[in-house]
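Problem statement: downstream parser choked on a complex file, so we are re-checking the raw output for the calcium ion run. The parser issue turned out to be on our end (a line-ending mismatch), but while we're here, posting the original submission so the record is complete.
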Amino acid sequence: MRRKDYPTLRRDPAFAGHSRSAILEEAENIPSNPATAPTMGEVIGARYGRRALLEGALATTAITALVGPTALATARRAAANAGPETRFRFDEIAHGVDETHHVAAGHRAEILLRWGDPVVPGVPAFDPMNQTAAAQARQFGYNCDYVGFAPLPVGSNGGDRGLLCVNQEYTNEELMFPGLGGEQDAKQMAFKNMTRALVDIEMAAHGASIVEIARAANGRWRIEAESRLNRRITADTPMTIAGLAAGHDRMRTKADPTGLRCNGTLNNCAGGMTPWGTYLTAEENFHFYFWGEVASESAEARNHRRYGVPGRGYNWGAYHDRFDVAKEPNEANRFGWIVEIDPYDPSAVPVKRTALGRMKHEGAEAIVNRDGRVVLYMGDDERFEYIYKYVSHGRFDPANREANRRLLDEGTLFVARYEADGSFVWLPLVWGAGPLTPQNGFASQADVMIETRRAADLLGATRMDRPEDVEASPRTHKVYAIMTNNANRKADQLDAANPRAANDWGHIIEMTQPGDDHAALGGTWEMLVRCGDPAVAAVGARYHAATSRNGWFACPDNMAFDNQGRLWIATDQGTSWKKASGTADGLWGLETEGAMRGYAKMFFRVPVGAELCGPQFSADGRTLFLAI
Ligand code: FEO
Ligand code: CA
Ligand code: CA
């Protein structure tokens, strides 16, 4: 399939005047997965018929709870009299399009942190007309994404004090810098007045912020501006590389002949917190930061192509050779990882954990399995990419924080394959097993880690509709995986787990593993909801029939379970919101259990065009932290 990369789209008259965000979204939506793994559901919906017969009335009830427009209308009439028996007991807000945020009645929404706010003590006040990299490296960064919470003191539930851990995903220089001048040049990828100083500000605005916050007697949270724990991580922060690819030849550069040290983290998307109190941040669209030409005979050409490197979204390569793949072909191999940060120690060097695989990572919540092993579920956020999980070899030891970090260096990475009969398997990415051999270009486990995508192709994993966040219910241990959308899926590419062509709306899959064992090698799966407007038959959306005209959503992205085991869904339609839903993004409660399974209800709405990330609850569930 011909690839339209960022520069091509920038030149495309159809995108004239479009923002960086719009073009980046379109470019990231272009699949780089050439795999032709067989599609499984030749006949869509066949599995429901078969399973209903096999499992009898219970399964039939669960399936018929998710219905189309006619039953929805009937249920709405009934609901108007009775009101649904949902555990989400707030007054639902309405869909809409405006420039402000809206929250359900009886709740208060306040801004806690903004781009440019001081993070590290002693930083000058933010002056957008006189930005410097030195100041930005100590101020809150740009385009916040994941929100995590590390309780204070360590090991407490942090009811009234903790460290907010926020990803700063990417920069919109056309919005950040006054007088940048016109549109980005499609050849040089520069705005007219772009300078090295501005690029360095962008680099300082990437990464993460760690900020101590405390709850005052009036219930409001405030920043502890003088906390010694406040910290910025940027695209230049020194880091180490650990795990199966650490020190490998393909990880070495001129600046780092050891392959064990690198600078910075990029495009940090949803992450997670570990049971030992560290913060995991996911490197997502790292390919955008690289430019230059990869020679076709280059040893890394096939690898780079599979990840869309160079993505040419930024012109950093003009000022920093490491972002030019012709000059430094291995630098891109040092991105696309999960990075572990110790928020409790501001001098701790962040670590890239290569045993968790290299992809456009999204989500990394760590779970302690019933046998003590640590399990992480992860998405690779691009059209037609895969869902992964990692299972540690060792067991979590609550008394040995230091030893627990090794759990992320020694373990097995798996990729998911979903069958049409409602089963699924986790396929191990283990060197030497199956096709992961020298004949296929894998000389060691390090090669499997660096080229995780190609290894998963060879194993025949299921190509999904942009896998985003994956979370497990702490109550039922069922696992939920979000597919955000995939407009490129064609009618002849459908399978049971990705059942709609031109899927502008996304869907959520539920996985059940035998014995609630997160280390299981497979299990069964169900569709929880198919997103979009259920009142429009052509959309093919499926929710619980009692879901109101405001309860449905499009393009789910992040999610969280609250302390009552209820699931909350945050959406990100990007600049496609008009096409996907015609309304702004927001936060919805979504029932996962019982008679109301598949019922959704809208709690919060963002200014139109904004993305909603997080969500992160305080321990008592009274506060919800959101990144807009
Ligand atoms: Fe950065 Fe997958 O959203
Ligand atoms: Ca995301
Ligand atoms: Ca997103």
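For whoever reads this later: The first strand starts at residue 66 and ends at 67.
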